[in-house]
Amino acid sequence: MGDLEVMLEKFRFLTSGESHGKCLTAIIDGLPSGLVIDTDFINSELKRRQQGYGRGGRMNIESDTVEITSGVRFGKTTGAPLTLVIYNKDFENWQKIMSAKPEDESDEKSFTAYRPGHADYAGSVKYNHKDLRNVLERSSARKTAIETAVGAVAKLLLKHYGITCYSNILQIGSGTSEEEFHAEIDKAKEAGDTLGGKFEVVFENLPVGLGSYVQWDRAIDGKIAQAVMSIPAVKSVSFGNGQHGYKIPGSQFHDQMYSENGKIYRKTNNAGGVEGGMTNGENLVVKAVMKPIPTLRTPLNTVDSSNMTETTAHFERSDTCAVEACAVVAEARIACVIANEIMLVNPADHL
Ligand code: EPS
């Protein structure tokens, strides 16, 4: 085993940016040189994230497109850190409020009533903020736009190795078909309420043996679970039929193995493509549940941090349902984990 396999991160990235700040930025490190960067593909992924039934007013303002400011020359990576930028169109309306200059300080758009379900309470205690705007701006799911762009770059690397992915919405409220999803979302919107849902992400054509069983922090299912669980509003992540594993006997749960022409095959994929913390050559199937968006037009009971009196939560605008967007973000996050695993076992400096 080489040193690189012990290393946990080869393809790595950091992002920055606030929901109503000037821009969102990401720096990706560890990409090989010679990878063709298809900007149209990145932008089409950004568009997918913006779509979906039930999105709110912000998506009518933004038309997210990426600018590449380093690491790519003439359409190919150079091996240097790749920087991606998405400009927030809404910044135009927030320039003074989001200003870095001390002389621009004002109370405009500040708020002190915690929004239950959001990062407001714990974030304000942790970072000692009186104005909860300071918590909202970075905790907002707006940052998933730049994560989607990073994921699109990861997908381009995976495509080079023949790995592809897709996602499906499985349930929204009590709806299980597209028509029912729309009806459920319409109903929630009318009631000033919000809805969550369940989705799955599938990756195909993965090599056997990504991840490892030798240390807990090298298990690929653990890494993927972290990547998906940390998407804002995701509250549950499972693999294959894992969420039903408590009620299915072992004789029916485990994916028995058969052989044809010297090749192993299985008739089921309850493990979701992971055994012993490693990919097993079956499709990777990750399922997740997004909770309902916590910003409601019919606001929730809460406490105002300025005087500790009971009140109702702050509302500006919100999506009614963002499960379709969440599935696109989950694809991106998982693509980054798999790109990293590929780079660990196949540490190419150039393609
Ligand atoms: C989002 C942009 C945000 C929200 C949403 C996600 O824009 P704004 O706050 O200006 O309406 O629509 O974020 C949340 C509701 C949240 O709680 O994080 C986006 O680009 O996806």
CATH class: Alpha Beta
Number of E strands: 16
Please state the structural category.
Answer: alpha+beta
| Percent helix range | 25-40%
Question: Can you summarize this structure?
Answer:
The chain is an alpha+beta fold and 351 residues long. It is 29% helix and 22% strand. The chain has one domain (2-345): Chorismate synthase AroC (Chorismate synthase, AroC fold).
Could you describe the 3D structure shown?
This protein is α+β, with helices and mostly antiparallel strands and 351 residues long. The protein has one domain: Chorismate synthase AroC (Chorismate synthase, AroC fold). It is built from 10 helices and 16 strands. It has helices spanning 3-6, 39-50, 58-61, 120-127, 133-139, 144-160, 178-190, 220-229, 250-253, 323-345; strands at residues 12-16, 23-29, 66-70, 72-73, 76-77, 82-87, 164-172, 197-204, 234-239, 257-260, 263-266, 274-275, 278-279, 284-290, 301-304, 309-312. The strands form 6 sheets. The protein has a 4-stranded antiparallel beta sheet with strand order 1-2-6-3, covered by helices on one side. Strand 10 and strand 11 (263-266) form a beta hairpin. Helix 4 crosses helix 5 (133-139), helix 6 (144-160) packs across helix 10 and helix 8 runs antiparallel to helix 10 (323-345). The radius of gyration is 22 Å and the shape is globular. It starts with a helix and ends in a 6-residue tail after the last helix. The mean pLDDT is 96. Ligand EPS binds next to helix 6.
